[in-house]
Design brief:
Layout lengths: L2 H4 L1 E5 L4 H18 L2 E6 L7 H8 L5 E5 L14 H11 L1 H13 L6 E4 L7 H6 L3 E6 L3 H16 L34 H12 L5 E4 L7 H8 L8 E3 L18 H7 L6 E5 L8 H14 L2 E6 L27 H4 L4 E5 L4 H6 L3 E6 L3 H9 L4 E3 L6 H11 L3 E3 L10 H13 L1 H20 L5 H23 L3
Parallel strand pairs: 1-2, 1-4, 2-3, 4-5, 5-6, 6-7, 8-9, 8-11, 9-10, 11-12, 12-13
Helix pairs in contact: 4-8, 7-8, 7-9, 11-16, 16-17
The chain binds uridine-5'-diphosphate.
Length: about 475
């Protein structure tokens, strides 16, 4: 049998650009450093988005991709959470996945391993039918993974809502976490989003291993605890930080005015403001942030989308719903001319964070954004919006100490005075300096773990050897 047939890995990214971006970089490593071929298999409820297509067009030819038949989610209410939509998309794609594996098997090209992300575990049913080894790529951190591994047990013992617990929750290797800081689905245990989160978490134990996009210097205790063997706990491989350096690939445009603008700004003087691939602010919040940025007097690049009452309203396509500029306070663009730049919908984030003029990042604490900031040594202002971002913010502010938290007032709005306070403290204060130094240490740690003999490199090699040793079994099973 030809070698290319043997070393085949399939990856199912669940919908959302933030899920796809690290998996693309992961796939490139499997191809470039470990000799695998990779096929991305996309479940979806509609044809691929332009952001997805741009990313896929930038892939090397050694990485193939296929789209499964779109699933019908029209029975879901418009209020269904993203976790529900994503999980059901995978579940309802199983018939087409089965068909695809059937044809791959007939062509003797069945993958040895199927990698899914946190909401894709229902695809394990098809993997099991074809004796394909199931793995999870956790695009988030060790703290979140530890919590999810505990969730089935916590769910059995808890009689109230997490947010009503009077004591913080203790997760092995992690700091104390209050119910309110848990991810959005955990705020309502009767909701569908929670049921899907729990459903996936219960299936984690079926994985032959979990790949973790984090590294030891960043979360030493949580990672050590995860690596201790235990019941219902697959081996965990910390292989991060895996970041995609080609953020311009997403909209296919590598000519960005903001990068030229950055060239003309003083060293470390610019605050980069972005809420990830899909985050949006309410109209009132957008105004307070704008006014705070003006009053802080600091230089900034702000990736802006038109306002929405739903914080993740651009999650599935990354684009602003309408032109966002008319929503800015009157005179904002004139008042910030030369000092600030507003970029609608999408900016080349990695290149901005890598630029020497960038000195801080006001972020929604998505895990990719966090890792991209770490590998570039850029300190953070934590402004979580949805999903598990509050848990990430807690980790970054209280535990790792690489971020300042922008505090909401009672009415959940971050007021302009708070924006001014936190921006100034990060960009000019002593506290900002301490956070910057801590970020530099982490950046060095990230370089170390990714060297040839580094811990994350070794962890990925260990997994890849395990996958390669799974091959003969697959070869026998291709008669399925
Ligand atoms: N991103 C980007 N430009 C933007 C917004 C986002 O390149 O204007 C990229 C960012 O670099 C990161 C990803 O989109 O790789 C966002 O992932 P993250 O986990 O931070 O947040 P999510 O979008 O999943 O909420």
């Amino acid at each position: 049998m030809a070698e290319a047939k043997i070393l085949h890995i399939a990856i199912i990214p669940t919908p959302g650009v933030g899920h796809l971006i690290p998996l693309v970089e992961f796939a490139k490593r499997l191809v470039d450093h470990h000799g695998f071929t990779v096929t991305f298999i996309f479940p979806g409820e509609s044809p691929p988005s332009s952001a997805q297509i741009s990313i896929l067009n930038s892939l090397p030819s050694s990485i193939a991709y296929v789209f499964l038949h779109p699933v019908d989610l029209s029975d879901l209410p418009s209020t269904a959470g993203i976790e529900t939509r994503i999980s059901l998309t995978v579940t309802r794609s199983n018939p087409s996945l089965r068909e695809l594996f059937g044809s791959l098997s007939a062509e003797k090209r069945l993958p040895a391993v199927l990698v899914v992300d946190l909401f894709g575990t229902d695809a394990f049913d098809v993997a099991a039918e074809f004796h394909v080894s199931p793995y999870i790529f956790n695009p988030s951190n060790a703290n979140v993974l530890s919590f999810l591994l505990q969730l089935p047990k916590l769910d059995e013992t808890l009689s109230c809502e997490f947010k009503d617990l009077t004591e913080p929750i203790k997760i092995p290797g992690c700091g104390l976490i209050t119910g309110k800081d848990l991810s959005d689905p955990c705020q309502d245990r009767s909701g569908d989003a929670y049921k899907w989160l729990l459903h996936n978490a219960k299936r984690f134990k079926e994985a032959d291993g979990i790949l973790l996009n984090s590294f030891l210097d960043l979360e030493p205790n949580a990672i050590k605890a995860l690596q201790e063997p235990g019941p219902d706990k697959p081996p965990v491989y910390p292989i991060g930080p895996i970041v995609n350096t080609c953020s311009s690939c997403v909209n296919g445009n590598d000519e960005y005015e903001c990068l030229n603008w950055l060239d003309n700004q003083p060293l470390g003087s610019v605050l980069y403001v972005s809420f990830g691939s899909g985050g949006t602010l309410t109209c009132e919040q957008l105004n307070e942030l704008a006014l705070g940025l003006v009053e802080s007097g600091k230089r900034f690049i702000w990736v802006i989308r038109s306002p929405s009452e739903i914080a993740h309203s651009s999650f599935f396509n990354s684009n602003s719903q309408t032109d966002p500029l008319p929503f800015l306070p009157p005179g904002f663009l004139d008042r910030t001319k030369g000092k600030g730049l507003v970029v609608p919908s999408w900016a080349p984030q990695f290149q901005i964070l890598a630029h020497p003029s960038t000195g801080g990042f006001l972020t929604h604490c998505g895990w990719n954004s966090t890792l991209e900031s770490i590998v570039n040594g850029v300190p953070l202002i934590a402004w979580p919006l949805y999903a598990e971002q509050k848990t990430n913010a807690l980790l970054l502010v209280e535990d790792v100490k690489v971020a300042l938290r922008a505090r909401n007032s009672e009415d959940v709005i971050v007021r302009k005075e708070e924006v001014v306070r936190v921006v100034k403290r990060l960009m000019e204060g002593e506290e900002g300096k301490a956070i910057r130094n801590k970020m530099k240490e982490l950046k060095e740690g990230a370089v170390r773990v990714l060297r040839g003999d580094g811990l994350s490199t070794k962890a990925l090699t260990e997994v890849s050897l395990k996958w390669k040793s799974h091959q003969p079994e697959v070869e026998q099973d291709t008669t399925h």
